[in-house]
TrEMBL record:
Keywords: Membrane, Transmembrane, Transmembrane helix. Pfam families: DUF998. InterPro entries: DUF998. The chain crosses the membrane at residues 7-27, 54-71, 78-102, 122-142, 149-168, 180-197. This is DUF998 domain-containing protein. Signal peptide: none annotated.
Length: 198
């Protein structure tokens, strides 16, 4: 069983790409460039029920499963346990984001309670996958190659989070920048998972 659990991080990295793409096929005229990923599961969207069913809930499970694997490994260092904890938190918040959808219009002046919970949970998700690669970066217990990749992914995530805020204010293509920001984090998870099983 443990040999399967260790692949959960890789599975989650691939699943999220496929899940978002598949859900978007059932959302007429959905734009990956201008719309957020969460708009697939937004209130009253064509894929409100479908998106969390194939994205948030299974993804949250995979994140938590991989985080548990890292935390429960006998040889786990304090750094690895901390990273595993961040991945578990990421998984829990993925569930929360699925259960509490955002509003259909991301520019709503007075967001609903559900949207506010979704947004705060999303912020914790972002933070958890900033902290995790930062731990790798500043821990000498990890290989230099992994620390270098963690640095690149961390900078990518922070940079595209910044450009996302600019695109959102300008109402241009925030969806693209969100994908680049979160994509940097998912690439980090994928590479980290490979190092863990190699």
């Amino acid at each position: 069983m443990e040999s399967l659990i260790q692949y959960a991080g890789i599975a989650a990295s691939i699943w999220i790409v496929l899940g978002i793409y598949i859900a978007s096929l059932f959302y007429p005229n959905y734009s990956h460039a201008t719309q957020f990923c969460s708009e697939l599961g937004a209130l009253d969207s064509p894929t409100q029920k479908l998106s969390p069913a194939i994205n948030n809930y299974p993804l949250g499970f995979l994140f938590i499963l991989f985080g548990y694997y890292l935390v429960s490994t006998d040889s786990a260092s304090i750094a690895t346990i901390a990273i595993g904890s961040m991945i578990i938190i990421h998984g829990l918040c993925t569930w929360v984001c699925g259960f509490f959808p955002m509003d259909a219009d991301p520019y709503t002046a007075t967001p609903s309670t559900s949207c506010n919970i979704h947004s705060w949970s999303g912020a914790v998700m972002l933070l958890s996958f900033i902290i995790a690669p930062a731990i790798v970066l500043f821990s000498s217990s990890f290989p230099f190659a992994l620390r270098t990749i963690s640095f690149v992914c961390l900078i990518g995530s922070l940079f595209f989070s910044y450009t996302l805020s600019l695109a959102f204010k300008a109402r241009t293509n925030p969806g693209l920048h969100q994908r680049l920001s979160y994509g940097s984090q998912i690439i980090w998870l994928f590479v980290f998972s490979i190092f863990e099983i190699s």
